[in-house]
Write a structure and sequence with these properties.
InterPro entries: SAM-dependent_MTases_sf (IPR029063), TrmK (IPR006901). It is an enzyme of class 2 (transferase). By secondary structure, the protein is of the alpha/beta class. It has a domain of about 150 residues: 3-Layer(aba) Sandwich (Rossmann fold), CATH 3.40.50. Helices cover about 40% and strands about 20% of the residues. Strands 3-2-1-4-5-7-6 form a 7-stranded mixed sheet, sandwiched between helices. Strand 4, helix 4 and strand 5 form a beta-alpha-beta unit.
């Protein structure tokens, strides 16, 4: 069984179903860990580059898994998987993948963007996927793991009416829990931005938003 880093361990804890698909598996260590632990019955790894596709084939050899060479969710049939993960990519790339073929997305998504998790939260709000949980994993960088569930309701109960922009930016569940590690990261970022002699408008807005959060 492969040893997962803290980031993928946190992702794996959110997954328990019959068929799980992972886009951009690289070496498919996540799927192998899930299969070995009995958290899933079948895995589907989807790659669009030859070497990662070969890596995943080697890792999953002999296991109940299918390794497909395809572009993102185009490698899935509608209703084929119970859940889907995309990890280790920038949010813009992840959102592009999710938007490609919405009908092929499973009802449950576990998303770990390397940057700008707010872009994924915004996509979910606009796409009827509710943010049912989010976790923080501290590794090489701090990582946000977002758990999304398709819903027929347009209003996501995770987001109270007040401060919607702050909630999308920092995450409603993280704001509510106020994990000391998360607060320490925000303090560190605020102090860094406050010491900069010049900031872009975007950086200034983020600094001011962090200050509001720290004062809550």
């Amino acid at each position: 069984m492969p040893r997962l880093d803290e980031r993928l361990k946190t992702v794996a804890k959110q997954i328990r179903c019959r068929v799980h698909a992972d886009i951009g598996s690289d070496h498919a260590y996540l799927l192998k860990a899930l299969l070995t632990a009995g958290r899933i019955e079948q895995g589907i790894a989807i790659e669009n580059k030859v070497q990662p596709w070969r890596n995943s084939q080697a890792t999953l050899a002999g296991l109940n898994a299918d390794v497909r060479f395809a572009e993102g969710v185009l490698g899935l049939r509608p209703g084929e998987a119970d859940s889907l993960s995309i990890c280790g990519m920038g949010a813009a790339t992840i959102v592009r993948i999710l938007q490609t073929a919405p009908a092929r997305l499973p009802d449950r998504l576990i998303i770990q963007p390397n940057r700008c998790p707010e872009d994924v939260r915004q996509w979910a709000l606009e796409s009827n996927f509710h943010l049912i949980d989010e976790q923080l994993a501290i590794g090489h960088w701090p990582y946000n793991i977002l758990v999304l569930q398709r819903s027929s309701e347009t209003s996501d109960p995770a987001y109270p009416n007040q401060n919607p922009e702050i909630q999308v930016l920092f995450g409603p569940h993280l704001l509510k829990r106020r994990d000391p590690r998360w607060l320490a990261l925000l303090n560190e970022e605020f102090n860094y931005l406050s010491k900069m002699p010049r900031l872009t408008k975007q950086a200034t807005d983020r600094r001011d938003a962090i200050q509001k959060v720290l004062k809550m």
